[in-house]
Amino acid sequence: MGAHAELLARHRAVLPDWMALYYDEPIAIDRGEGRRVTDVEGREYLDLFGGILTTMTAHALPEVVEAVQAQAAKVLHTSTLYLIEPQIELAEEIARLAPIDDAKVFFTTSGTEANELALLLACTQRRSHQVLAVRNSYHGRSFATMGITGNRGWSASALSPVDVKYVHGGYAYRSPFRHLDEDAYIEACVEDLRDVINTQTAGDIACFIAEPIQGVGGFATPPDGLFGAMKEVLDEYGILYVTDEVQTGWGRTGEHYWGIEAHGVTPDVLTFAKGIGNGLSIAGVVAPASLMDSVLANSISTFGGNPLATAGALANLRYALEHDLQDNAAKVGGYLLSELASRTADHPAVGEVRGKGMMIGTELVRPGTRGPDPAAASRALETAKDHGVLVGKGGLHGNVLRIAPPLTLTDEEADEGLAALDAAFASLQP
Ligand SMILES: Cc1ncc(COP(=O)(O)O)c(C=O)c1O
Fold first, then answer.
1. pTM above threshold 0.85
2. What is the pLDDT of residue 429?
3. For ligand 1, is residue 280 a contact (CB within 6 Å)?
4. Spatial distance between the Cα atoms of 181 and 159, rounded to a whole number of angstroms
5. pLDDT by residue (tens digit) across 215-243?
């Protein structure tokens, strides 16, 4: 039995079945450097998924490794009862970068927990537990965040501390409004929002929460300006706007630093996670001081903003800023997107190629139809892996290929990735 087979048997025995693994023969990654990883059987891959958009800069980035090693050698844990210098420094940097005035930052260990705080802030200030979320969304795995997740495949329970109504949003490809042009599509979503508020709620809704580009939902990318138009309605009712930037933050979309900027919206609350820590467990919430300070009781996260995670995240963030990785996401990501779109333009199994920067989704369909084809996505994933390239998948039906590499991806690596994807698409020809 090979190393992978043996690990798989042990994994299956003691870890939950609902933790999905990729591939017919799942792999364990032993180490990484730059954009490349090596599995425990010694095979090397180009990593175009970054551990679900989390390896933001690079594997084993020396700056991050050094910061983590130096902090680990000093002190691992002190608790939030004491001042933590890297935590303060990171909060200062994030408050400066966030599109929110007079910003304060609270650190958590996961995106789920960050969205929990966003809900708490909004519900506390508005004295309401009504929330609007978007269909096909994903916001986390706790009861409240599963409650605001509009994707049956990721929402295991109907129990919810918040009262949620779902509105139409960015997944135009499978929307009943898909036949409309962009302006008319936006208008239809705005009308739907107003209708939901007027017919399904008591009006005093706490907040609206949306991902600027839906991540788990298959990189569903709304027309620019959609959320700005929706916000005009939200403002009429005093409903707070929460932007979930867990996947779209830090320049990944290329054209903007935060995904929400494509919509001209100044959010009331912003949540982040994944890429900031490059794999360290760190996430958080940004809100104006007036809102952040409105929590009515003590609250801490034991591990949130710990010295190790914040020291590493600070080094990671600085590297991304100093090397203008947003610009690289725009250039190399733009190249990948246009190449993928043109190479698959006549492919009968490709319904749509979409996304921004280094967040690219390819919707796979049964040839000649709009019907989702999850088996094709699995096949494409296997073929890309056979050609030494790791990509992801997602979408409501599991039929969307997701490409989201570390933001340092080079032109040559993009070409290498495209060659593997050519083979993957060729394997789907009927
Ligand atoms: C948009 C979005 N929000 C929230 C989360 C939850 O983050 P975490 O898995 O760190 O709890 C995710 C995770 O995939 C996400 O994609």
1. yes
2. 84
3. no
4. 37
5. 999 999 999 999 999 999 999 999 999 99
Residue burial 172-185, b: 16+ Cβ < 10 Å; e: rest = bbbbeeeeeeeeeb
Q: Is 272 in the pocket of ligand 1 (CB under 6 A)?
A: no
φ, ψ (nearest 5 deg) of residue 31? -160, 165
Tell how strand 359-364 and strand 163-167 pair up: unpaired
On whether the CB atoms of residues 395 and 154 are closer than 8 A, the answer is: no
Residue 45 CA to its chain's centroid (Å): 22
Residues whose CB falls within 8 Å of the CB of residue 152, separated by 6 or more in sequence, listed in order: 396
Check pocket membership of 231 for ligand 1, CB cut-off 6 A: no
The residue assigned the tokens 């609902």 is 18
Mean pLDDT (the chain) is 97
Q: Which of 18, 49, 108, 112 to mutate to test the pocket of ligand 1 (most atoms within 8 A of CB)?
A: 112
* pLDDT beneath 70, residues of the chain: none
| Nearest atom of ligand 1 to the alpha carbon of 113 | 11
Distance 283 CA to ligand 1 centre (A): 10
Nearest to 142 by CA among 109, 169, 93: 109
Q: What is the structure's pLDDT at 379?
A: 98
Q: Which pLDDT belongs to residue 352?
A: 97
Domains and CATH numbers, the chain: 3-58+324-426 (3.90.1150.10), 75-322 (3.40.640.10)
Mutate to test the pocket of ligand 1, among 52, 209, 247 (most ligand atoms within 8 A of CB): 247
- Which ligand 1 atom minimizes the distance to the CA of 214? 1
Report how far apart, in Å, the C-alpha atoms of 213 and of each of 170, 181, 197, 240, 370 are: 7, 19, 23, 19, 21
pLDDT of 39: 98
